[in-house]
TrEMBL record:
It comes from Aurantiacibacter spongiae. It is found in: Membrane. This is Probable peptidoglycan glycosyltransferase FtsW. Pfam families: FTSW_RODA_SPOVE (PF01098). It comes from the Bacteria. GO terms for molecular function: lipid-linked peptidoglycan transporter activity; peptidoglycan glycosyltransferase activity. It is a multi-pass membrane protein.
Length: 415
């Protein structure tokens, strides 16, 4: 017998049903917790905790340096500001990581177009800081390039993954044209460091997409020629390279950073007991790694480096078992962007690389740059989400390379 349907009479209320939205949210959280890479998330949170401590150590130096007679900044001014930005960044990171992969890809394509348009506006209406015009002010000040890089990398991964469906598509040329256009806009700011890093990340993605070895050699030669051209015709690049090759002076920022880094020895001089940091121009951003060395010791510097390596290796280990080219390219590109910026900053502090004005990701103080980095990590976590109960067959990179090489030789034979 069929169940009777309850129809309320006039004036009566129907049966009370419990709302399903909270239950759905709990279910989504359980799925997210099951699929998220918890080890990667733990390494990220540990790095952010080290960053909080480091900004607290560096804040007095920068606050006193930037104080004026009219405005005296409290010693912990940058520390409390960093806490606020970190809380906002954490919400952005976790919120982004909960998005399904397909909406993430579509969002990145749309945002890439918006941020590219914003980057075009920078030379005309941008805000100039320290001789570089990289910021836009729309209520808050932000760098369009910082948000463009991660979403553009995901979009380029999508373009390069077309190769799986149609090997004849010129995906290398299409993505290279986009990278070249973005690079020109970055050099116009000028932002040489970001341009070099962006090209390097694209090169990594192109190699993973199965570019034949002979073409890799051609791209490497083209990159060397571009660097030579930048040195000859781009004043910003020539000045930085000449300053690096000429050796630091006693008052050079990089030399001060290196001496600050080694001043505390292995165990450090103690929290808030460092003195060399007071002379650094950007103790809370570009040279925070040196502050860590002086006050917390070289041992903690080693821990920071190991955390970055752990993040990179964890991503690569997860990708070994991945069978979708888009995920491999997007995750590899994002972690290359994150790790590349980290190690460029560290090498600058060690006097092993020309100064680039890059912050130490998730450790340095930052406003909108912290949000952009947390957004980058959120994209990485979302793209790498995986059902642990589904088995995957790893993508055959070697077979793909051999097939491409075979197709190239067939074309040559036909000619």
């Amino acid at each position: 017998m069929s169940a009777e349907i309850y129809i309320p009479r006039s004036g009566e209320e129907g049966p009370v049903r419990s709302p399903r939205l909270p239950r759905d949210r709990k279910r989504e959280l359980r799925i997210w917790w099951r699929e998220i890479d918890r080890w990667l998330l733990a390494f990220i949170l540990m790095l952010m905790a080290v960053g909080t401590l480091s900004v607290a150590a560096a804040s007095p130096a920068s606050a006193r340096r930037l104080s004026t007679e009219a405005v005296q900044l409290p010693d912990l001014y940058f520390f409390w500001a960093h806490i606020r930005w970190q809380m906002l960044g954490l919400m952005v990171m976790l919120g982004t990581s909960m998005l399904p992969r397909e909406p993430v890809r579509r969002m990145c394509i749309v945002l890439a177009g918006i941020m590219l348009f914003a980057l075009l506006l920078v030379p005309f209406v941008g805000t100039e800081v320290n001789g570089a015009k990289r910021w836009l002010t729309v209520g808050i000040q932000f760098q369009p390039s910082e948000f463009l890089k991660p979403v553009c990398i995901v979009s380029l991964a999508w373009v390069l993954s077309w190769k799986v469906r149609d090997p004849e598509l010129p995906v290398i040329a299409i993505s290279g044209a986009v990278v070249g256009f973005v690079t020109l806009l970055l050099l116009a700011q000028p932002n040489l460091g970001a341009a070099i890093l962006f090209i390097a990340v694209w090169f990594v993605m192109v190699m993973l997409a199965g570019l034949p070895l002979q073409r890799i050699g051609m791209l490497g030669g083209a990159g060397a020629a571009l660097m030579l051209g930048a040195y000859l015709f781009y004043d910003n690049a020539r000045n930085r390279i000449d300053s690096f090759l000429g050796g630091p002076s006693a008052y050079d920022h990089v030399d001060l950073a290196n001496r600050t880094l080694t001043a505390g020895g292995w165990t450090g001089s103690g929290f808030w007991l460092g003195t060399n940091k007071m002379r650094l121009p950007e103790a809370h951003t570009d040279y925070i790694f040196s502050v860590i060395g002086e006050e917390l010791g070289l041992i903690v510097c080693v821990v920071v480096v190991l955390l970055y390596l752990a993040i990179i290796l964890r991503v690569l280990i997860r990708l070994v078992e991945e069978d979708r080219l888009f995920i491999i390219l997007a995750a590899s590109g994002l972690v290359a962007l994150f790790g590349g910026q980290a190690f460029i900053n560290i090498l600058v502090n060690l006097q092993l690389f020309p100064s680039k004005g890059m912050t130490l990701p998730l450790v340095s103080y930052g406003g909108s740059s912290t949000i952009a980095l947390c957004f980058t990590i959120g994209l990485l976590l979302a793209i790498m989400r995986r059902n642990p109960f589904l088995a995957r067959e790893p993508l055959d990179f070697r077979g793909a390379l051999d097939r491409d090489a075979g197709r190239d030789s067939d074309r040559e034979d036909r000619r």
